[in-house]
Amino acid sequence: MPARRQANANSESVDNYLKAILVLGGSTEQRVTSTALANRLGVAPASITNMLQKLAVAPEPMVEYERHRGVRLSPAGRRRALEIVRHHRLIETFLYEILDYPIEEVHDEAERLEHFISERFEERIAAKLGHPKTDPHGQSIPTMEGQMPVREAICLSEALAGGAYVIDSVGERDAETRRRLEATGLRVGIKLQVLPRTSAETCSVSIRRAGQPEDAIDLTAELAGGIRIVPFGI
Amino acid sequence: MPARRQANANSESVDNYLKAILVLGGSTEQRVTSTALANRLGVAPASITNMLQKLAVAPEPMVEYERHRGVRLSPAGRRRALEIVRHHRLIETFLYEILDYPIEEVHDEAERLEHFISERFEERIAAKLGHPKTDPHGQSIPTMEGQMPVREAICLSEALAGGAYVIDSVGERDAETRRRLEATGLRVGIKLQVLPRTSAETCSVSIRRAGQPEDAIDLTAELAGGIRIVPFGI
DNA sequence: CCTATATATTAGGTATACCTAAATCTCTGA
DNA sequence: TCAGAGATTTAGGTATACCTAATATATAGG
Ligand SMILES: [Mn+2]
Ligand SMILES: [Mn+2]
Ligand SMILES: [Mn+2]
Ligand SMILES: [Mn+2]
Predict the structure, then answer these.
(1) I need a surface site. Which of A27, A32, B21, B159 has the fewest CB within 10 A?
(2) Residue B4, pLDDT above cutoff 60
(3) Looking at the 3D structure of chain B, how many domains does it have?
(4) Ferrous iron transporter FeoA-like domain: which residues (chains A, B) (predicted)?
(5) How many Å apart are B6 CA and C11 C1'?
(6) Contact indicator for A186, A173 with CB cutoff of 8 Å
(7) Residue B86 CA to nucleotide D9 C1', Å?
(8) Residue A59 in contact with residue B41, Cβ under 8 Å?
């Protein structure tokens, strides 16, 4: 009945650190600061430093770390992070498609289970789903070999006023942001038109949903930043 | 991305202790000794004592514990243990029925996941499976309300020579025993006839499978003890 | 160029869940 | 009855992953 956990690497915590470094580093794999990680993970900066030092000197180092200059993933760390992201997105897709979860509940369940499913489980749900390329939020699912397909999509906060777009993906955010986003009704596949800037605030956006031209929706920079779009129509 | 775990009770370890006490206490809910728990869980006896003392003095005690006299579950502990057993058996059924796992692999996956699925996940797989009453090993699945249906089945080691039976359930065992059991080909639904005792060893049994009268199978007390049967035919 | 401030690290401490070795109980059999 | 064997508990320690407070570093502005 046990379930002994091996002493070293690969704990739930380590997984979450690696995933956070992957996301915060962005496509250019910039060094990530302790503070950024502390905010993202909700732990004290001192705890971050501790963990990074441990991960950097492990037998198979998960990160490259230099005091005061941030971290980035080592090849092994990157591999593991992508593995967990693949688990996460496959689980979300599975919960949504097979278990009929409401979309706003898939994230929290996936956030936990991503660390505990076996390779067999991963393989079986992928097969059951027909090896999907994207999750229900429109995000690419990394391949089994650890390749993350890049999407051709721009950020809503960079869109040109007057343009017509369709939502390509909605980023992973904290629970509160997710709730506010959900309230706007914006999700993958929704068509919208960007309105001329009304607020002085940089990166905030006003839009109009296709089919509902009467109601303008104002989005804060934070909300708009998580939505990626592609041009629609001609 | 976090997934903060509340400080007190309800860890994976605690769950496994409670489940072990439930099973070892049997239907009569006998007190369970530290040694029995230490063997079952694969931890040092001293660790057992530590955990039991903690569980006994928690704000909502999970066990009734008296020094040198063993433990049993409190009502709250029993509730939690049955909840985890329900998770375990629903997950096994789900892996077997929906994800087409080979039967010998369902246990290990369920042993891990049972601690991490949400109530929603539990409810959804139960619904998808049509609210099953037994798992793929023939064991009863506790109800959502925490009732464990009792089965009318006797232990193979108590069967009368000459009787014809069908296997009702196969108990949960350690990996090694499971492997040996699997090698005999015995599973739920298999029909067999008990042969006159050949070995002097108490509780060991010889049987013959229906349809394969040529090969007698000798089972050790340990193997036979995990197999429960019901009379078959007239 | 050099200090103030923000950023990051070190130091020291907590809780969980294990471990080994050293007591201390319990209870059986002479 | 009571000694000793076996079961159990206590004592003291480890590793992980957090925390707060104190200290050190980097660098941007004056
Ligand atoms: Mn996670
Ligand atoms: Mn995997
Ligand atoms: Mn378990
Ligand atoms: Mn449940």
Answers:
(1) A27
(2) no
(3) 2
(4) 154-231
(5) 27
(6) no
(7) 33
(8) no
Token digits for B85? 């057993």
Same domain, residue pair B118 and B30: yes
Confirm whether any atom of chain C, the nucleic acid strand, is less than 7 Å from CB of B4.
no
pLDDT at B201: 65
Q: For B61-107, how does the pLDDT look when each residue is reduced to its tens digit (9 = 90+)? A: 999 999 999 999 999 999 999 999 999 999 999 999 999 999 999 99
CATH, residue B73: 1.10.10.10
pLDDT digits (tens, 9 = 90+) for A108-122: 999 999 999 999 999
- Tell me the pLDDT tens digit for each residue of B19-61: 999 999 998 999 999 999 999 999 999 999 999 999 999 999 9
Contact call for residues B230 and B165 (beta carbons, < 8 A): yes
Q: Which residue is nearest to nucleotide D27 (CA to C1')?
A: A68
Q: Please give the model's pTM, rounded to 2 decimal places.
A: 0.91
Other beta carbons within 10 angstroms of residue A146's beta carbon come to 15
The CA distances from residue B97 to A101, B79, B84, B92, B110, in Å, are 20, 27, 20, 8, 14
DSSP A50: H
CATH label of the domain that carries residue B200: 2.30.30.90
Q: What is the span of the domain harbouring residue B91?
A: 1-150
Which value, to the nearest 10 degrees, does the dihedral of the CA atoms of residues B59, B64, B66, B72 take?
A: -150
**Facing residues of A191 across strands?**
A166
Give per-residue pLDDT as tens, B119-177. 999 999 999 999 999 999 999 999 999 999 888 899 988 888 888 999 999 988 777 78
Q: Which amino acid is at B105?
A: E
Taking residues A126-130, what's their average pLDDT?
98
Residues belonging to chain B: 234
Give residue A226's pLDDT: 87
Integer Cα distance of B104 and B229 in angstroms: 20
Query: Which residue of chain A is at minimal alpha-carbon distance from B128?
Result: A99
Q: Are A222 and A177 in contact (CB under 8 A)?
A: yes
From A132, A150, A168, give the residue that closes a domain. A150
